[in-house]
Design goal:
Largest sheet: 2 strands, antiparallel
Distance between the termini: 5 Å
Number of strands: 2
Length: about 475
C-alpha cells in the first residue's frame, strides 16, 4: 500500500518557511537604515516564521523519506501556497501596518500570488521595510514557491519533476536541461538577471534606489504592487517606457528568455506562441490607440498610454497610470479579453495563457473541418509538435473550471454586497492574478479593496490561490479519491 508521506510534506513546507524567515533580514536592514521603526516588528515576525518552520522541518519532518509521489506533490504544492502566505502576513500585523488578520492575509496572498490587489490606501505612509517586504513577496512568488524547493533540493531526483509538473499543472513546460533542478536553477538565473537589469535602468532614469528596487521586483514578477497611492501617474515618461518593455518581457516564457539571453535565436523563431503574443500585444495596443484618438484625445498621449496599458494588462502586472480624458468602451472590451487570456505559458503572468487558447482554437478548427470532410484526419500541432489528445482534454477541463470559478466567485461577491458588473470584474481580475483591475476603473467604479467586507476578501484570496495554482492542484487535494490508499 502506498501511504501518504506526511513527513516529507512537513519538511519541505518547513524549509520554505525558514527561507522566508531568513529573507526577512533584508527588510530589517532597510528598516534600520531608514529608521522607520518597523525593525522590531519585522524581527518578531521573522522569529515566529523561524519557529513554525523549525517545528515543521526538524520535528514533524524528521527522518522524512525523500521518495516523492504524485499524491504528495499536489499536497506539498497546495500546503506551501497556503502556509507561506499566512506566515507572510505576520510582518504586516507585528509592525502595525495592518490591524486585522484578514487584511494582513489579503496583502500577503496578493503578494505571493502576484495579484497586486492592496488594502493599504497610502503606500507612502508605510515603513520602507514593509514596502520592500511587499515587493519581495511578489518576486519570490513570481517564479513559484515550489521552484525554490526544486532548485535547492537535488535529493528529490524524479520527485523534482513531479513537483515541477504540479506547480505548472495546466501547461506543458519546456525544460532547459535534462536534470530538472538544473533547468529550474537556470530559470532563476534569468529571472534574477532581468530584475537586476531593470533596477539599474530605473535608477538611471532618475528614480530612487528603494523605489527602483520595489518597482523592479513587482514588474518582473508581474505582481503590480505600487509605491504611491496614485499608481504610476507621478513617474517620468522614460520610466514608463522602460516599464512597458519589461512588462512585455515578463509575459514571455522564462525558459524562452533564457534561450534568448544565451543567443539561441532559433528557439524564438520556432516558438509560435511568442509570435502570437507579440501580435496580440501590437494589435491590441494599436486598436486602443486608434480608439482613444477617435474619441478626441491627443494621438501621441493615446499611443503611449495604450502601449503601457496593454503591456500591463496582457502580462497581468496591473500597473495603471492616468488615462486620456475620454475613455472608449471598446478599450474596456479589449482589456477584459486580455485579462482572461493572459500572457505566455511558463511566464510569471496569470490568466488562461495563450498556449491553451491556441490549442483550443486549433482543435475547434479541425473539428469544423471534420464536419465537412469526415474522412480527413487532423492533429493539433504547436511548434510543429503534436499536442496529445489527453492534454487537449485537460485544457478543455481547465477552461471550464476557470469559467466556473469566475461565475462562482462573482456570485459570492454579490452576496457580500458588490454589484454584478463589479463582482465579475473582481472575480476575473483576481483569478487572473491582476488585482488592481484597470477594467474596473474604466467602467467608472470607485473601488477600494480595503472597503470590501471580510467575507469578500477571503473569496478573492481563494480566487488568487486558484489562479496561481492553476486550479488542478487545489482541486486534487479535496477529491475523495485523492485520500484513498493506492496499491
Amino acid at each position: 500500500m502506498q501511504r501518504f508521506n506526511y513527513r516529507l510534506v512537513a519538511r519541505l513546507t518547513g524549509l520554505l518557511t525558514l527561507i522566508m524567515a531568513a529573507a526577512m533580514a533584508v527588510p530589517v536592514g532597510v528598516s534600520l537604515y531608514y529608521g522607520d521603526g518597523a525593525h522590531v516588528g519585522l524581527l518578531l515576525a521573522a522569529a515566529a516564521m523561524a519557529a513554525v518552520g523549525g517545528l515543521l522541518h526538524s520535528v514533524l519532518g524528521r527522518g522524512a523519506d525523500y521518495e516523492l509521489h504524485e499524491r504528495e506533490s499536489f499536497w506539498i504544492t497546495s500546503m506551501v501556497w497556503m502556509a507561506v502566505p499566512l506566515c507572510g502576513a505576520l510582518p504586516y500585523l507585528f509592525t502595525g501596518t495592518l490591524h486585522s488578520f484578514t487584511d494582513a492575509a489579503f496583502e500577503s496572498f496578493s503578494g505571493f500570488t502576484t495579484t497586486g490587489a492592496s488594502v493599504i490606501p497610502d503606500p507612502t505612509a508605510v515603513p520602507q521595510g514593509i514596502l520592500l517586504w511587499r515587493a519581495m513577496t511578489q518576486w519570490i512568488g513570481g517564479l513559484g514557491l515550489i521552484l525554490f524547493v526544486v532548485a535547492l533540493l537535488k535529493r528529490l531526483n524524479r520527485g523534482a519533476l513531479t513537483l515541477y509538473s504540479a506547480e505548472f499543472s495546466g501547461t506543458q513546460q519546456r525544460k532547459l536541461h535534462p536534470h530538472i533542478s538544473t533547468s529550474v536553477s537556470r530559470m532563476w538565473q534569468i529571472y534574477t538577471l532581468l530584475t537586476v537589469l531593470l533596477i539599474a535602468l530605473l535608477i538611471a532614469a532618475g528614480n530612487g534606489i528603494l523605489d527602483s528596487i520595489c518597482l523592479a521586483l513587482s514588474t518582473v514578477s508581474t505582481g503590480g504592487f505600487m509605491t504611491t497611492p496614485l499608481g504610476m501617474s507621478g513617474y517620468s515618461q522614460p520610466t514608463l517606457a522602460i516599464l512597458t518593455v519589461f512588462m512585455f518581457l515578463s509575459g514571455v516564457n522564462v525558459a524562452l528568455l533564457y534561450n534568448l539571453f544565451t543567443l539561441k535565436w532559433r528557439q524564438l523563431k520556432a516558438t509560435h506562441e511568442f509570435w502570437v503574443y507579440a501580435a496580440v500585444f501590437l494589435l491590441a495596443a494599436g486598436s486602443c490607440a486608434v480608439a482613444f484618438g477617435l474619441k478626441g484625445n491627443a494621438w501621441g498621449a493615446s499611443a503611449s498610454y495604450s502601449l503601457f496599458h496593454i503591456a500591463s494588462t496582457i502580462s497581468t502586472c496591473g500597473f495603471y497610470t492616468t488615462p486620456p480624458p475620454a475613455w472608449p468602451f471598446g478599450v474596456s472590451v479589449v482589456t477584459f479579453v486580455l485579462i482572461l487570456s493572459g500572457a505566455m505559458a511558463g511566464s510569471t503572468g496569470g490568466g488562461l495563457k495563450l498556449r491553451r487558447l491556441m490549442t483550443l482554437l486549433l482543435y475547434l478548427r479541425n473539428y469544423l473541418i471534420r464536419m465537412l470532410h469526415p474522412n480527413v484526419v487532423f492533429t493539433v500541432k504547436i511548434d510543429r509538435q503534436v499536442v496529445p489528445g489527453v492534454y487537449v482534454n485537460k485544457i478543455f477541463g481547465f477552461v471550464f473550471l476557470y469559467i466556473c470559478f469566475i461565475i462562482g466567485g462573482a456570485f459570492l461577491l454579490t452576496l457580500s454586497g458588490s454589484g454584478i458588473a463589479d463582482a465579475f470584474c473582481l472575480a476575473a481580475a483576481n483569478i487572473s492574478n491582476l488585482g488592481p483591475s484597470p477594467l474596473i476603473n474604466s467602467l467608472g467604479a470607485s473601488l477600494d479593496y480595503a472597503l470590501l467586507p471580510a467575507a469578500a476578501k477571503w473569496v478573492l484570496m481563494s480566487l488568487m490561490l486558484a489562479g496561481r495554482l492553476e486550479i488542478f492542484a487545489l482541486l486534487a487535494i479535496v477529491s475523495p479519491s485523492y485520500w484513498r490508499l493506492r496499491r
